[in-house]
Amino acid sequence: AHNTIELPKPTRELEWKDVNFLSTSDVHGWLLGHQHATWPEPNYSGDFGSLASFATHMRRIASDKGVDLLLVDAGDHHDGSGLVSSSADASSKAEDIFSMLPYDIITIGNHELYHYEDALEEYRNRGRWNGRYVTSNVNITIKAEDGTFQSVPLGERFLKFETEQGRKVTAFGVIFDFKAHARGISIQGTSKLIKEAWFLDAIKDKPDYFVLAGHMPARGETGEFLPMFDAIRQVHPKVPIYVFGGHTHVRDCVQYDDRSIAVVPGRYLETVAFTSSSLPSTDENAPLDVSRRYIDGNPVSYKWHTKTSDDDFELPIGQNISLALLRLSAALNISTPLGIAPHDYFLNRHPYGHPRSILTAFSDKVLPYTIQDKERNGTRVIIGNAGSLRFDLFQGRFDRNDELTVSPFTSAFLYVRLAAGLARNITEQMNRSGASKFIPSQPTTKLEEEDRVRRIFDDYMAEQWEDYLIQGGNDHLYDQESNQMVLEHGKIPKKPRTMGFVTKDRCPGKGDDIEHYPVPFVGNQPDFIETPFPDVDDEEIIDVVSMDFALDDFLAAVNVLDPTIGLKEKHMKPYAEGLEINVVFGMYAKEMWQKGL
Ligand SMILES: O=c1ccn([C@@H]2O[C@H](COP(=O)(O)O)[C@@H](O)[C@H]2O)c(=O)[nH]1
To answer: Which of 279, 299, 331 is the last residue before a domain boundary?
Structure first.
């Protein structure tokens, strides 16, 4: 019955001001929108075509009002849905479709930089963004026409443009100091970037406002936006600075001073953030009047905010985008059912070990069943990288698109023979150390530690859930079986509500456009998981299998547990050669989930 609940309409008009922004980030290929019926998915059912129609209506409204409206994206288009994870060619085509909506400022994410070919594709086709792809701290090494290798900016170093209303904008696009990028890519930390002559020159002239788009969190007393912010403030103490972050996958907002606002719009086309600000009037010292609103990505919200209806909401740009997406999806053949999933399996709604946790299904069922090496049928344990799973797997029809949504990466498997006594401690040791590629490289203060990406997500979401249960949520109970909030017997709900994001950011007032009850969230999930350990004596030598993406963490853990081993990459051999992690759920579904097909 929950699937028949109508999407709620917004109740508060957007606060349009002199300067307005729509921002997205971490879209990860979710251009077709969220298509499953399990809540909160219907809240995010709008595809990129409907976003394009919305943005275009919003541009018209801005124009009518005589105010600015800029469209900003903070990167991570790769690795997610079948549209971007089926093949390199698919992600290139999906990126072409993305660029059919003209963004004013767009930057790169870490998922465009894991593989050199992906970054090169972005570099070669940067023209599709009409000069608005800005990567202030990313270089790529390319073979120049004269045959020499040259390190060149991947996109524009900075942007200077005038808005339709004649306002001057200076903009930068940056990424956090990401270490796991491919060879041939270089990233300069923002504290170094601000010393570059080109940067100092770019900020010399006073624009009407600055925009910083960054694939990085907005929060953090020592976050990576701050060196740039401070450098600009040294020269222009009062010029407005608008910051658009990403990477954390959560809605967030913070103000660095009263002439700025920093907003993060979540992930996966679930949210479009609307940010607005007055511009300084005659009183140079008055704080800016700013606001932000996190709009759920669906046509009901889009229509309400643009005062359009079924008859006039869809515009040719949106229809063309939707059609192009459907054509690409059909050509990729990602919609054929592979099986019927018997349950929902969630990434963060249950602790690891719970039968409805996708991590549990991965370690206890999918990996043991699918990762088989024909040459090696001895005893083994497989250690998996939990971060390789990216989303929930929903009950019902399960196709290649769903498979890639859950597990988009191309990691392969490697093994080494080790004593079982040592092997049984490796995963625990790996979890003690954490996923090294995602731990900040700088020594951290307590405050910085608090701002670690994962921590933000965990604390933030767990808090929402606890608060809800303690305070407002006492007319509903969480039903484990249906994964829904159900009305407590005999009670009348205070308000009709749907499950969705409940945001607590650091900006004044309410940010969420629609009031929901929060999605249950369990933080502190392990970074690494393992298949059920074989029943063997400690002395027995077994195959210990690692995913190649986590190999550095695996080698480090083995060498910590027994420094005499001196395990190196060259000692590892392929296991189940040819098999990559992005096909295992499909293999499992084809065998185990055929009932109902
Ligand atoms: O090849 C890969 C690349 C990345 N991962 C995992 O992805 C996340 C980081 O993703 P963000 O969206 O940038 O937060 C991290 O957990 C990696 O382990 C991977 O598994 N394989």
So the answer is: 331
Its ipTM equals: 0.98
Residues 155 and 252 in one domain: yes
Burial class (CB in 10 A: 0-12, 13-18, 19+), 228: buried
Q: Which residue has the tokens 């100091």?
A: 177
CA distance 203 to 233: 10
Tens-digit pLDDT profile for residues 88-140: 999 999 999 999 999 999 999 999 999 999 999 999 999 999 999 999 999 99
Q: Which residue has the tokens 């109970």?
A: 477
pTM of the predicted structure, to 2 decimals: 0.92
Tally the domains of the chain: 2
Atom of ligand 1 nearest to the CA of 438: 15
Q: How much distance in Å is there from the Cα of 359 to the middle of ligand 1?
A: 15
Q: Domain containing 416: what range?
A: 335-435+527-592
Boundary residue ending a domain (285, 300, 331): 331
Q: Separation of 551 CA from ligand 1 center, angstroms?
A: 13
Residues contacting ligand 1 via CB (< 6 Å): 76, 110-111, 114, 247, 385, 387-388, 409, 411, 435, 438, 549
Residue 263 CA to residue 254 CA, distance in Å, equals 7
> For a pocket test of ligand 1, which of 110, 388, 584 has the largest count of ligand atoms closer than 8 A to its C-beta?
388
Q: What is the CATH number of the domain that holds 41?
A: 3.60.21.10
